[in-house]
Design a protein that fits this description.
Blueprint lengths: L6 H18 L4 H4 L14 H12 L19 H12 L8 H12 L2 H12 L5 E4 L15 E5 L2 E8 L10 E7 L10 E7 L5 E7 L5 E12 L4 E2 L5 H11 L1 H4 L3 H16 L1 E2 L2 E2 L4 H29 L5 H26 L17 H12 L6 H12 L7
Parallel strand pairs: 1-4
Antiparallel strand pairs: 2-3, 3-7, 4-5, 5-8, 6-7, 9-10
Bound molecules: flavin-adenine dinucleotide.
Length: 396
């Protein structure tokens, strides 16, 4: 099996690396390139991040796999992957859901009005989206969602609650899955809507995760929207939600943050001292870090299997589940081992006097837990591997 990228792809990557070198010389560099960035905090908003995204857009890096008629470059999806892998490997924010999940769904199923209104703004990095899927009773079992959208005259009126909506507090538009036919089987009565985030019927409340990352619960009270903001066909939303996951396969599965975390652990073993000697003198520490090196290599290969299958136009459901399960668990184990290495001091938080590495490992130890939940929990990934990958069906 050959996981190598083509010459053209490598040449593109080299150009992009040069582009990032220029960015690194810019005034926002220290905010944009943060190798200690935890994956769940990519979507924290800042003027620097918005400026960086706008410059990426001006340089033509946003929407590269979109068709030319919509302003894209019609490059294969692997280019989206190369961009995001390079960005995350350098600790920079990645290109988000507006381009993949939302932009590509609008291209595939949206009306001309939605295309004209949203696609140019996405390409220019002028708008941010929040993704409203999960609810208090619908996370892993998303198709059980209950947020109600009723047709009243010309309008749709939405009532109910969403949960865990990242970026709701700074996004411009809300991409919402709602129940439009409560009588239909649960996968068949769902539709997708676009709701302006400043609608007076929306109430956004902060939820702080254990990784210090902000997410939100959002309440809908008589949120009325025009018929144009129903995406595609009524009651076809479940199909769009599933398809959108496939659009994101290239963009979301970057291994860069894990590699950075492992490099930081190796550095820790060289720098930190126990009884006056570097930790790396300890054969038990070296043994464990060598094991991690092998596991990091395994994670990289699992990730390449996702990309290799997606390049062939196949849907890598099982491969993606294996990679998500293994890599997020590994990130967690690495952060946890770093705390073990640092001893009690390793539990000091950022800002506390004497906190080793500025308390970053303590933060990492908490933030990596969140990675094992968001985007589909560890247990759900294992279910996919067992059922779809191995045919171990319940009651079979
Ligand atoms: C930081 C963060 C950001 C998020 N951002 C967004 C967002 O922007 N938009 C959005 O829509 N959602 C978002 N989510 C929600 C995320 O997708 C859900 O948290 C996730 O799908 C799990 O759903 P749940 O939290 O409802 O847990 P539940 O589904 O209630 O699961 C609870 C526990 O039961 C386990 N479990 C559930 N079903 C099974 C099963 N069949 N077999 C075995 N075990 C099972 C789970 O693994 C978990 O341990 C975010 C979550 C987090 C943590």
């Amino acid at each position: 099996m050959n996981f190598a990228f083509s010459e053209e792809e490598m040449a593109f990557l080299k150009d992009f690396q040069q582009y990032l070198e220029q960015e690194k010389a810019g005034p926002d560099s220290s905010v944009i390139f943060a190798p200690w960035r935890e994956t769940d905090s990519w979507l924290v908003d800042s003027p620097e991040r918005r400026g960086f995204m706008k410059r990426l857009a001006q340089a033509g890096y946003i929407g590269m796999s979109w068709e030319k008629q919509y302003g894209g470059r019609e490059r294969p999806g692997v280019y989206d992957y190369l961009l995001n892998e390079e960005l995350s490997s350098q600790g920079a924010p990645i290109i988000g859901k507006g381009v993949g999940c939302i932009g590509k769904t609008i291209i595939a199923h949206g009306s001309d009005k939605l295309k004209q209104e949203f696609l140019p703004q996405i390409l220019a990095a002028d708008i941010e989206f929040a993704l409203g899927y999960s609810e208090p009773g619908a996370g892993s079992d998303l198709a059980s969602l209950r947020l109600r959208a009723e047709r009243r005259g010309d309008e749709w009126v939405l009532n109910g609650q969403k949960m865990w909506t990242t970026s709701a507090h700074f996004a411009d538009w809300y991409w919402v899955a709602a129940r439009t036919d409560p009588e239909a089987p649960k996968h068949k009565g769902i539709s997708v809507f676009l709701v302006p985030m400043d609608h007076p019927g929306l109430t956004i409340k902060e939820i702080k995760t254990m990784g210090d990352h902000r997410t939100n619960e959002v309440f809908f009270d008589e949120v009325n929207i025009g018929p144009d903001y129903l995406v595609g066909e009524e009651n076809a939303g479940w199909r769009y939600v599933c398809e959108a996951l496939d659009y994101e396969r290239f963009a979301l599965y970057t291994v860069g943050p894990l590699l950075l975390k492992f490099e930081a652990l190796v550095e820790l073993a060289k720098v930190a001292r126990r009884d006056g000697r570097p930790l790396s003198d300890d054969p038990v520490v070296r043994d464990r870090i060598a094991e991690f090196a092998c596991e990091v290599e395994m994670a990289t290969m699992l990730q390449r299997r996702v990309i290799a299958k997606a390049i062939k136009g196949e849907v890598p459901t099982v491969e993606a589940a294996m990679y998500k399960y293994f890599s997020t668990g590994l990130g967690r184990r690495i952060a946890n081992y770093a705390i073990d290495c640092l001893g009690p001091l390793g539990l000091l938080k950022s800002g506390a006097p004497g906190a080793p590495f500025g308390g970053r490992w303590e933060m990492s130890d908490r933030a990596t837990v969140v990675d094992t939940i968001g985007g589909g929990s560890t247990e759900v990934q294992k279910n996919i591997v067992a059922r779809r990958g191995l045919g171990l069906m319940v009651g079979a």
